[in-house]
Amino acid sequence: MSNRRFTFLTTAVMVVLLTATAAVAVAADGPKMVVPEKIKDMGKVAQGDVITVDFAISNEGDETLEIKAVRPTCGCTVADFDREIAPGKTGYVKAKLATRDFSGPISKSILIMTNDPRDPTTTVVIKTVVHPYVQVLPRALVRFNAVQHEPMVQKITVVADEEEKGFKVTGVKSSVPFLIASVQPVSADQLLAGKSPQQYEIALTMEKNPPVGPVNAVLEIETNHPKAKTVPVKVFGVVRALLHVTPSQVQFGSVAAKMKPGRNVIVVNNRSARVAVTVTNAAVNDPAFDTEVVTIEKGRRYQVTVTIKPDASTGPRDAVLTLTTSDPEFPTLEVPVRANIS
Fold first, then answer.
1. Do 283 and 324 sit in the same domain of this protein?
2. Are residues 148 and 199 in the same domain?
3. Judging by beta carbons within 10 Å of its beta carbon (0-12, 13-18, 19+), is residue 205 exposed, middle or buried?
4. Of 198, 214, 240, which residue sits at a domain end?
5. Residue 136: Cβ within 10 Å count
6. How would you class 114 by CB atoms within 10 Å of its CB: exposed for 0-12, middle for 13-18, buried for 19 or more?
């Protein structure tokens, strides 16, 4: 091998070594995030417990490690975290996991974002098995679709662990005043098979005159179980009016009275399966309009027609159609009537 070639190869090797050494030196610069334990397995916990977990974050670099953001997944809350960690020091991300809405094995992750130039993000995980020492069957959720003044009953069963002797449901609290819950032990011939015989039936009913609209409530079942003093049950539903008017207003828009613009129709529906209701009269508090009531199904459905009189004076109209019914609790219904007569 010639001296020139040997010198060239030696120079090339030295350049490669120097480049590699420089790369290692550069790689050693800056903050470096190290998480000794990325998965925390908390084992078996009682449903309703709040788990507190601390994840250690070490800085093995030679500059300050900055934790820019911490983003938890659903059900997990980050209580606090060290925003700056000096070289050679350890900080913490403190997280809490509320288990009241979970059952069985769960896994919740937290994304940690830093200024580490090589590995800026990492994910840590909380694992646990949530054990409902007190079960609500068929599930801890009640849904209903009710009509005002009609009876509504929804039932759920509360069951305790076999190991818990002398279990009792001591009460039920509703977050909505017009929802009423009653408790009684399940009779021997009605017990759910394959479950502990310590069973209680909770019947959810509604007061006679609840407000119309959606319902979003929570039942707090109170027990003497040391690991389940309260058991939450979510309640979703809707209360509908006994008499329903479709559409909810009479809207003519801009019309010419002399052109006989036709009629506008609404329908009154009686949602009750037990009580017949008659629409006995319809009148608009504006002489520009005429009305007519037609029976579609006696006691159940009525059609109300509103027309503009040909001799109606011009101008905007903002009137009210009053329907008179045979129902003592809904003697009148009011429907807006709007028109711009030219």
1. yes
2. yes
3. middle
4. 240
5. 19
6. buried
* Residue 70 neighbours by CB distance under 10 Å: 19
Neighbours of 8 (CB within 10 A): 11
CATH number of domain containing 157: 2.60.40.10
What is the per-residue pLDDT across 64-115, written as a single tens digit (0 to 9) for each?
Answer: 999 999 998 776 788 789 999 999 999 999 999 988 778 889 999 999 999 9
Cα–Cα distance measured from residue 211 to residue 1, given in angstroms and rounded to the nearest whole number: 100
Q: Pick the closest to residue 195 from 220, 167, 154 (CA basis).
A: 167
- In the chain, the number of structural domains is 3
User: pTM for this one?
Assistant: 0.61
In a domain, 106, yes or no: yes
Can you list the pairs that 325-330 forms with residues at least 24 positions away whose Cβ atoms lie under 8 Å?
A: 325/243, 325/268, 325/277, 325/278, 325/279, 325/280, 326/276, 326/277, 326/278, 326/280, 327/242, 327/243, 327/275, 327/277, 329/149, 329/209, 329/242, 330/241, 330/242, 330/243, 330/277
Residues 70, 150, single domain; the answer is no
Listing DSSP states for 55-107 in one string gives EEEEE-SSS-EEEEEEEE-TTEEEEEE-SEE-TT-EEEEEEEEE-TT--EEEE
Helix/strand/coil percent split, the chain, to 5: 10, 55, 35
The answer to whether residue 209 sits within a structural domain is yes
Contact status, residue 216 vs residue 244, Cβ threshold 8 Å: no
Q: Which domain holds residue 223?
A: 134-240
- Which of 218, 240, 262 terminates a domain? The answer is 240
20 in any annotated domain: no
Alpha-carbon distance of 271 to 113, in angstroms, equals: 56
What 8-state DSSP symbol labels residue 259? G
> Given a cut of 70, is residue 307 above it in pLDDT?
yes
Report if residue 256 sits inside a domain. yes
Q: What is the DSSP letter of 226?
A: T
